[in-house]
Amino acid sequence: MTEAARVLALLAERGQTLAVAESLTGGLVAAELTGVPGASAVLRGSVTAYATDLKRELLAVDPTLLEERGAVDSDVARQMATGVRGLLGADWGIATTGVAGPAAQDGQPVGTVHVALAGPDGTEKTAVLRLNGGRAEIRKESVRSVLALLLDEILATARAQDTEQNGGN
């Protein structure tokens, strides 16, 4: 079972939904998710905000943050995840932003990627990736990484709930 299929199955079991915000991956995360039969039970939709102004206008990323740090930043990724979650009315939001190449962007070298999630109860997580390879490899690994980040968080939340339900034993 792929990471996308595992994420979708776990969220379906919980009755939760997912929204995706993408920049450098340009729709690849949504494509990976929608490639799984039954994805529509969980996936609310996606926003590909490739241009920086769309991150601000559609996903409510702080304009000062974008001006000061550029679009390739962990806080930008976190705000994208939070923004898409609110915009599309989902329980979880995930986001990708970074530099796939061929040239550096916002002072960040090729292969710098930030992935993030925002979930119920104010859950927020980010990860910074330093990836090697060409444009296609960087984008593919970015997809895998954001789905892995979400999968790890879902599994950690499930373990914590099991511990609480079993009295901490």
Characterise the protein shown here.
The protein is α/β, with parallel strands linked by helices and 169 residues long. The chain has a single domain (3-165), classed as CinA-like (Maf protein, Alpha-Beta Complex), CATH 3.90.950. It has helices at residues 3-14, 28-34, 52-59, 63-69, 74-88, 135-165; strands at 18-22, 43-48, 92-98, 112-118, 124-130. Strands 2-1-3-4-5 form a 5-stranded mixed β-sheet, with helices on both faces. It is globular, with a radius of gyration of 16 Å. The model has no long low-confidence stretch (mean pLDDT 95).
Notable characteristics:
alpha/beta; globular
Describe the protein's topology:
Elements: H1 3-14, E1 18-22, H2 28-34, E2 43-48, H3 52-59, H4 63-69, H5 74-88, E3 92-98, E4 112-118, E5 124-130, H6 135-165
Parallel strand pairs: 1-2, 1-3
Antiparallel strand pairs: 3-4, 4-5
Helix pairs in contact: 1-6
Summarize the structure.
By secondary structure, the chain is α/β, with parallel strands linked by helices. Helices cover about 45% and strands about 20% of the residues.
Work out the helicity level: 40-55%
What's the gyration radius in Å?
A: 16 Å
Low-confidence stretches: none
Class computed from helices, strands and strand pairing: alpha/beta
Q: Mind telling me the CATH superfamily name?
A: CinA-like
N-to-C CA distance: 30 Å
Number of helices: 6
CATH topology title: Maf protein
Biggest sheet descriptor: 5 strands, mixed
Average pLDDT works out at: 95
> Structurally, how many domains make up the residues?
1
* β-sheet strand percentage: 15-25%
The backbone outline, from C-alpha atoms, is globular
Following the backbone from N to C, one meets helices and strands in this order, namely HEHEHHHEEEH
| CATH architectural name | Alpha-Beta Complex
DSSP strand count: 5
Strand order of the largest sheet: 2-1-3-4-5
**What's the CATH class, please?**
Alpha Beta
